[in-house]
Specification:
single chain, 150 residues, alpha/beta, Rossmann fold, seven-stranded mixed β-sheet, 37% helix
Amino acid sequence: MKNFIGIFLIFSIWAHALDRESTLKIYQDIFTTLSDKPVVSVYTLDSEYQNVFKKSSRLHLVHSAEGADIILITNIYDLNSVLKSKVFQRSTHRPIVFVTNYNLLKNSESIVGAIYWRKGRSQLLFLKEHLQKNHIKLPKKYHKFMVEKL
């Protein structure tokens, strides 16, 4: 029984590490594409994503929305807080907003896309109109993930 628990524990830790690594690769690719910078400043209040992004050489965590190229939002409370912040009151150099929840996509034109889970599978979605308003052109590999409207 102890061997089974030990093997299960090791497998769980290994699977979690693989999940974090694949998550990091996905976000690095998307965020560097969206911002067109080799190193992207990212702001998120979610501690899980902060831990994932800390291991990146291409994503730099910042401690305020003011210094961010991209803001990753995981819940409505954080979204409302960020959208009411000073950085969104000005007309120039607003950060790009990306979310992890399909239902948050409709809340602002600053939200250009989302990665979320549906039926146990990850989904990637970009809103074409929001990309255009933010002057973002995606490479062809992401065109299949663009939609006109929700």
